[in-house]
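Narrative of accomplishments. A recurring question from our advisory board has been how the design workflow behaves on a single, concrete structure rather than in aggregate. To address it, we present the structure tokens for one chain from the evaluation set, followed by the sequence designed for it. No filtering or post-editing was applied between the two.
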């Protein structure tokens, strides 16, 4: 696997030019060399326009940024690459204010860049299934205070969590904001878990949807015993709440899922921390762009 610079100075030196960034995107998009999406031919002319390849067989022009986070961007790719490093390098993430100062871009631009990268992270992780023993629980998240079902729920969002239990630790996780904790939304979330998994939860009625496609073990748990039955998911929920308060000082409902996606992306790759910037490039290249209004980026 290709090694990329591990410190910011070397990273920025490597990706200081538009050309170097394009070459890197090409490596991620076409790891085995160019492939024409129209006819499958593997030879192309590189056009002077920074992003374009023209197929030598069918003449179709393909942009290396089409279908990626960087499609139609007006920013130099070197700024995107710097943002990718800065966002991945710190466990706590980076705020739009800080990123705007470091890159010399406006706050709305920095905010939009971070949103796009978070969406790419979310898309990447939604492609994976959880397996084995999976603990599922819900929590109220957001705003300045967080609570448990029925407590302090004002201004909070219901979030459903699923975490693989591996021995005394955690495997992969998923988390989804819900309008409310009802049967159909729980059932949809359960599609993120492989059908032959065993799901642990408490006995809340909406969570019975977990029994439709999975082996479901539900226990009535008094609050003081809940950490014994669902220890892994509760550690993760506590970590997420700390993360949101630490870096972002509380997050509004509008962006909560995106912040959660960033937390999950980092959590699921916590054993490959040094590779995070490279993996974020890959997620950004595989990304199917969501049409949100980001005209200034
Ligand atoms: Zn072609």
């Amino acid at each position: 696997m290709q090694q990329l610079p591990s410190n910011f100075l070397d990273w920025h030196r490597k990706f200081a030019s538009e050309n170097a960034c394009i070459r890197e995107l090409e490596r991620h998009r076409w790891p085995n060399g160019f492939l024409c999406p129209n006819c499958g031919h593997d030879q192309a002319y590189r056009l002077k326009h920074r992003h374009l390849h023209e197929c030598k067989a069918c003449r179709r022009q393909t942009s290396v940024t089409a279908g990626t986070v960087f499609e139609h961007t007006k920013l130099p790719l070197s700024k995107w690459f710097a943002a990718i490093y800065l966002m991945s390098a710190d466990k706590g993430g980076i705020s739009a204010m800080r990123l705007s100062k470091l890159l010399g871009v406006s706050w709305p631009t920095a905010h939009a860049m971070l949103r796009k990268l978070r969406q790419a992270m979310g898309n990447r992780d939604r492609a994976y299934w959880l397996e084995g023993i999976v603990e599922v629980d819900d929590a109220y998240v957001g705003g300045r205070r967080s609570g448990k079902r029925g407590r302090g729920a004002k201004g909070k969002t219901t979030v459903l969590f699923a975490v693989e239990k591996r021995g005394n630790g955690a495997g992969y996780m998923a988390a989804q904001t819900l309008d409310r904790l009802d049967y159909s939304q729980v059932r949809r979330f359960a599609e993120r878990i492989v059908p032959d998994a065993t799901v642990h939860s408490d006995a809340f009625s909406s969570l019975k949807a977990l029994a439709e496609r999975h082996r479901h073990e539900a226990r009535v748990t008094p609050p003081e015993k809940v950490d014994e039955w669902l220890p892994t998911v509760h550690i993760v929920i506590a970590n997420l709440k700390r993360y949101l308060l630490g870096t972002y000082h509380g997050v509004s409902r509008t962006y909560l899922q995106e912040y959660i996606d960033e937390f999950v992306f980092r959590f699921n790759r916590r054993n490959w921390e040094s590779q995070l910037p490279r993996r974020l490039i890959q997620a950004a290249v595989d990304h199917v762009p969501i049409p949100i209004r980001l005209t200034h980026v």
